[in-house]
From TrEMBL, chain A:
<protein>
    <submittedName>
        <fullName>Cytochrome c oxidase subunit 2A</fullName>
    </submittedName>
</protein>
<keyword id="KW-0812">Transmembrane</keyword>
<keyword id="KW-1133">Transmembrane helix</keyword>
<keyword id="KW-0472">Membrane</keyword>
<feature type="transmembrane region" description="Helical">
    <location>
        <begin position="24"/>
        <end position="45"/>
    </location>
</feature>
<dbReference type="InterPro" id="IPR012538">
    <property type="entry name" value="Cyt_c_oxidase_su2a"/>
</dbReference>
<dbReference type="Pfam" id="PF08113">
    <property type="entry name" value="CoxIIa"/>
</dbReference>
Automatic annotation (TrEMBL), chain B:
<feature type="transmembrane region" description="Helical">
    <location>
        <begin position="178"/>
        <end position="200"/>
    </location>
</feature>
<feature type="transmembrane region" description="Helical">
    <location>
        <begin position="220"/>
        <end position="243"/>
    </location>
</feature>
<keyword id="KW-0479">Metal-binding</keyword>
<dbReference type="GO" id="GO:0009060">
    <property type="term" value="P:aerobic respiration"/>
</dbReference>
<keyword id="KW-0813">Transport</keyword>
<keyword id="KW-0249">Electron transport</keyword>
<keyword id="KW-1133">Transmembrane helix</keyword>
<feature type="transmembrane region" description="Helical">
    <location>
        <begin position="20"/>
        <end position="42"/>
    </location>
</feature>
<feature type="transmembrane region" description="Helical">
    <location>
        <begin position="336"/>
        <end position="357"/>
    </location>
</feature>
Length: 49, 551
């Protein structure tokens, strides 16, 4: 029992040290920023033309 | 054989050649920066130029000297350095070719600059016909381009030599990247060489009376968009291949970096119409095609963003960072070689997003010829690119001159980068906002006959003057740091950081070095995107225009 627990602990640690979830979140943030700016100016366009 | 170039210093003879380029680049920073300061002051409406100096004259100085001279000279010096460092010292013959190129570029620069200062060439940095400059201005520009080809030839010769000496091996990453940028530059500058030599020079000499304006603008933008990528790719070299070493991490993926550079080579050129979306004479279908190709550049751009974040996060987590963004805290914020280019990377997020707005046909009508565009490229080239160049200069200059970046200079460099960020937030932010309210770019101060709409722009113009003044202080600080690193810093060995891949055993496919293939696709895409529009522009041309000197 104790052995199994130890094993799963090491596993999560390894996953954490090579995880790229912050990278994923950052790239999504950039994508989101692009979409917000684009949609914003698009509505400005619709409003004016 | 080349003996482990990674451990060696850049040879001092190559260093002299690179430094010659950097001296010209930083003189340009002073001249162009001063012109920029005068511009924002004039546009605030509170200041008038003395001694009959024209606004459009200093506008031309600012654009030509910073957009063309500072960038081209810095890039050539930087690329020579990275190639010498990673592919080995240049041979005597290659170095001589480099020096010939340097002098051709310098003579061309002086010729063009003298004509601008004599007020014979106030045609702005885009030198659109039918504005007509003195022929020596065009001749000078031609020499700058021919000189840059000559320096490029030295890089190509070095690369070819390396490949012969190391058959079947992939070239060093930084050499590969410098080569891609050189090849893209040569293909792109054919357009500007064509309009200058075939159209503008004979016309300014009076050999022909008229010029086909639409053709000259199209040739200019065939060159003008890849020009932007010619500025950007050296910054990407720093971001991909040098910053990881500075922070103590690894390059996330060597193959990904090479592939994104190949994609930039393919998609940077057949896209110039996104600058001409509101021009008559080009069929909407061809504009649409080039806009689609423009959007293809989003792919390597987001690949770059991913790779940089991944390299930062991998490093941070190796230092025990936890949570979603804990790795940000592990980055060396006290090191100007990292932090100043990092400010540039952050600026590239709104810069890239704004670029996507600009390239979208309908929205281009919202911002076309407004000062939004000026705000946009002051984020791309004048922040993302330039701060990365400054960040590189902090180690490159002392490396080449046998000196060291001291703690004190590092601190000044951090202040310099922060001042730039603050000044640019004011200036570029106000430009974007005023542009959305319709404020025109390029034009001198005017209250447009007391128009209510023009009155709305005034507070933003004052904000631009405040931001521009802060930026000028940052420029003076940068020049002080450059002079210190070039002449006065203590003697020593400053590291030339070259990153290593996270998985060096993963070799990039050799197909990346197949230049017949990549240049072939590049040429095919260009022919596809431009052949029929050019036939249209020439066959259905209106009567040509005589030259105008409106200053
Ligand atoms: Cu463009």
């Amino acid at each position: 029992m104790a052995k199994a627990e130890l094993k799963s602990n090491t596993k999560t640690e390894i996953e954490d040290s090579s995880s790229l979830k912050g990278t994923l979140a950052s790239v999504f943030f950039i994508g989101f920023f692009i979409i917000v700016l684009w949609v914003g100016v698009y509505f400005l366009y619709l409003d004016r033309f | 054989m080349i003996k482990s170039p990674l451990k060696s210093k850049v040879d001092s003879r190559d260093g002299k050649l690179a430094m010659a380029h950097l001296y010209v680049a930083f003189i340009a920073l002073l001249v162009g920066g001063l012109a920029g300061l005068l511009q924002v002051l004039v546009r605030s409406g509170k200041f008038q130029l003395p001694a009959g100096i024209g606004y459009y004259q200093i506008l031309t100085v600012h654009g030509v000297v910073l957009g063309l001279v500072l960038t081209t000279f810095f890039i050539m010096g930087f690329q020579l350095s990275v190639v010498s460092k990673t592919a080995g010292t240049f041979t005597g013959k290659q170095r001589t070719v480099g020096w010939i190129g340097f002098w051709i570029m310098t003579i061309g620069t002086i010729a063009a600059a003298v004509m601008i200062l004599l007020n014979k060439a106030s045609v702005l940095y885009t030198f659109y016909a039918p504005l007509q400059a003195h022929f020596i201005f065009y001749l000078g520009l031609t020499l700058v381009v021919v000189g840059s080809w000559t320096v490029g030839a030295a890089i190509i010769m070095k690369y070819a030599e390396w490949r012969r000496a190391n058959p079947g091996q992939q070239s060093p990453l930084l050499t590969f990247m410098a080569l891609v940028n050189t090849l893209m530059w040569i293909v792109a500058t054919i357009g500007v060489a064509a309009t200058v030599l075939i159209q503008l020079l004979p016309w300014s000499l009076g050999w022909v009376d008229t010029v086909n304006v639409a053709v000259s603008r199209t040739l200019f933008w065939y060159f003008g968009h890849p020009l932007v990528y010619f500025w950007l790719l050296p910054a990407y070299m720093v971001w991909y291949a040098i910053i990881p070493k500075i922070i103590g991490g690894k390059i996330f993926s060597d193959s990904l970096a090479r592939m994104s550079f190949i994609l930039f080579l393919l998609f940077s050129i057949p896209v110039g119409f996104h600058h001409q979306l509101l021009e008559p004479g080009i069929d909407a279908a061809w504009k649409f095609l080039q806009v689609v190709l423009t959007f293809a550049v989003v792919i390597p751009s987001l690949m770059t963003a991913f790779s940089l974040f991944a390299s930062f996060e991998t490093f941070g987590r190796s230092k025990g960072a936890k949570g979603l963004f804990g790795w940000l805290k592990k980055l060396p914020w006290g090191d100007a070689r990292f932090t100043v280019p990092f400010i540039g990377m952050v600026a590239f997020i709104p810069a890239g997003a704004g670029g996507i707005v600009n390239a979208s046909h309908q929205m281009n009508q919202v911002i076309h010829n407004t000062i939004w565009v000026t705000g946009h490229f002051h984020l791309t080239v004048a922040t993302a690119v330039v701060l990365t160049f400054f960040g590189a200069a902090f180690w490159l200059v002392p490396h080449l001159t046998g000196r060291k970046l001291t703690k004190k200079m590092n601190k000044l460099a951090l202040i310099q980068g922060s001042l730039w960020a603050i000044g640019m937030t004011f200036m570029s932010g106000a430009m974007h906002a005023a542009g959305l309210l319709g404020a025109p770019r390029r034009s001198a101060f005017s209250d447009y006959g007391g128009s209510a709409q023009a009155a709305e722009w005034i507070p933003y113009q004052i904000a631009q003057a405040v931001g521009g003044s802060i930026l000028f202080i940052a420029i003076i600080l940068m020049l002080y740091i450059f002079i210190n690193l070039a002449f006065f810093a203590p003697k020593g060995e400053q590291e030339f950081p070259v990153g290593e891949a996270l998985h060096p055993e993963e070799k990039a496919p050799m197909v990346f070095e197949n230049w017949k293939l990549w240049l072939g696709i590049t040429v095919l895409l260009i022919l596809f995107a431009y052949t029929i529009p050019f036939i249209d522009l020439i066959q259905n041309a209106p009567p040509g225009s005589k030259g105008f000197k409106l200053w």
